[in-house]
Amino acid sequence: MPRSVNHAASKARRKKILQRVKGQFGRRKNVWTVAKNADEKGLLYAYRDRKTKKRNFRALWIQRINAAARLHGLSYSAFMGKLTASNIDIDRKVLADLAMNQPDAFRELVEKVK
User: Fold this and answer.
1) For the residues of the chain, what is the DSSP string, one character each?
2) Architecture of domain 9-113
3) Fewer CB within 10 Å of terminal CB in the chain, N or C?
4) Could you tell me which residue, 114 or 39, shows the higher pLDDT?
5) What is the pTM of this model?
6) Please, what is the angle between helix 7-20 and helix 32-71, to 10°?
7) Per-domain residue ranges for the chain?
8) Mean of the pLDDT values across residues 87-107?
9) Is 29 exposed, middle or buried (0-12, 13-18, 19+ CB in 10 A)?
10) Residue environment code for 39-65, b if the CB has 16+ CB neighbours within 10 A, otherwise e
């Protein structure tokens, strides 16, 4: 009795992976074994960098808040400490947006915590 293989499913599986690596360079885009490895590595990078992205954005927000606070004579840590002491709960994302796009509102916030 011949071996039964579900060729439609295996072809679909390969097609899906080859579709995901379509923009890659060289054999990574059209040779099955190389493409499979490239796809697995790409998925690992995607998972890892979703976490890294959060870290990078938080660092960017802190730098922006620090720069804006120093324009008003406060360091970042002093500013954040005074915000906490004043019971003002604004997250870093919103503070950084205020510092960049609405400096007058940020200045009023600084005056309030001083």
Assistant:
1) -PPP--HHHHHHHHHHHHHHTTT--GGGGT-HHHHHHHHHHHHHHHHHHHHHHHHHHHHHHHHHHHHHHHHTT--HHHHHHHHHHTT----HHHHHHHHHH-HHHHHHHHHHH-
2) Orthogonal Bundle (1.10)
3) N
4) 39
5) 0.79
6) 40
7) 9-113
8) 95
9) middle
10) beeeeeeeeeeeeeeeeeeeeebeebb
